[in-house]
Design goal:
The chain has 299 residues and is α/β, with parallel strands linked by helices. The chain has one domain: Alpha-Beta Barrel (TIM Barrel), CATH 3.20.20.220. Helices cover 52% and strands 14% of the residues. It has twelve helices and eight strands. Strands 1-2-3-4-5-6-7-8 form an eight-stranded parallel barrel, surrounded by seven helices. α1 crosses α12, α5 packs across α6 and α7 runs parallel beside α8. The two termini are 20 Å apart. Bound molecules: dihydroflavine-adenine dinucleotide.
């Protein structure tokens, strides 16, 4: 299967961009912020919330990180101007975490300050394992000064339960996901059920401590288990929401919404959609399977 997925990745790279766009557009709002705004408006009409992400490539220098910061500020201002039910997600390396953690702290701090003025919220996405410690450290530093910042944890990492135990003490607002990058077996669970068990173990720990959780998954098994846990623990609706990626399992999204639970969709947009799509495919060739289905079966 892995080899097949790698072949699909190579095949996709040989296709003209216009063709790649046909399947990418399912997962990406468009090239401009206005594309994202129009999409979020439509979702908001259905009482579906959004988190907006500016697509970017790994930055090479501080000037590029400053451009990324300004784009984030523009997103926050635009959310306010359009009265959208949306917040911001950002990748810490886009803001300079890979260059200089102190610089990244200043940059994200500026974004949080503006978000706070606008009564909005910002979540730090979690990238691959070389950045796990740096991202958690960044979060711990930011949470001292700002209460409108949250973090993502990845259930496939063996360390996550211990991270949750520590971050629960900081009144952390989490997004809990499985994790999308290819990580070595020394640090990450590989077995599907082991990842699900880790997910539910962390979710229980978070909910029992009264922390807010964005339950980010399209896995029906996990969604059903989360429903059961919420009921058993008598968790109130102000302590969690469900989250999904744009273009994935819209049937489940609508079900969660009609069941009366809050649901938020991750909305990526930006000029860098092509590089981003190809990079994500290379990072995790198993996504290629979904892409393949989308190209040929237009699911
Ligand atoms: P699983 O991979 O088992 O998928 C369940 C089902 O959903 C599949 O069988 C398929 O039907 C469908 N599906 C899933 N992904 C699909 C796709 N791309 N295209 C088509 N169908 C698909 N990861 C990370 O490392 N850091 C992060 O910060 C984030 N942020 C994030 C935000 C939000 C809102 C979500 C929903 C997810 C993330 N992720 C993430 C990604 C996450 O780690 C994970 O890779 C995906 O959500 C897929 O895992 P599932 O839990 O959905 O299960």
């Amino acid at each position: 299967m892995n080899i097949l997925n790698k072949i699909i990745v190579a095949f996709v790279q040989m296709m003209p961009r216009s063709i790649v766009w046909i399947f990418s557009k399912k997962y990406i709002a468009g090239k401009t912020l206005d594309d994202a705004v129009q999409l979020v408006k439509k979702l908001n009409e259905k009482n579906i919330y959004a988190t907006i992400d500016v697509l970017g490539e790994a930055i090479q220098n501080k000037d590029e990180a400053v451009i990324a910061k300004n784009e984030c500020l523009q997103v926050l201002n635009t959310i306010q101007e359009n009265n959208l039910k949306a917040n911001l997600s950002l990748k810490p390396t886009q803001l300079g975490l890979n260059l200089d953690p102190e610089f990244a702290y200043q940059q994200v701090g500026e974004i949080l300050k503006r978000a706070s003025e606008l009564n909005n919220f910002v979540r730090l996405d979690m990238e691959d394992s070389p950045y796990t410690d740096a991202t958690i450290n960044l979060y711990k530093k930011l949470i001292r000064d700002y209460d409108n910042v949250g973090i993502v944890v990845q259930a496939y990492l063996k360390r996550t339960f211990d991270d949750v135990v520590i971050m629960n003490k900081l009144n952390t607002n989490y997004r809990l996901c499985k994790g999308i990058y290819v990580e070595p077996a020394t640090i990450a669970y590989k077995d599907k059920q082991a990842i699900r068990n880790s997910y539910m173990g962390s979710l229980e720990k978070m909910l029992k401590s009264g922390n807010y959780v964005g339950i980010a998954t399209h896995d029906e098994y996990l969604i059903n288990e989360a429903y059961k846990m919420i009921k058993e623990l008598k968790v109130t609706n102000d302590k969690f929401e469900f989250q999904m990626l744009l273009g994935v399992r819209e049937d489940l999204r609508d079900k969660i919404n009609s069941d009366g639970f809050k649901i938020r969709i991750y909305i990526p947009f930006g000029e860098h959609w092509y590089k981003y799509s190809i990079r994500r495919l290379k990072e995790n060739p198993s996504i290629a399977g979904h892409v393949f289905k989308n190209i040929f079966f237009m699911k």
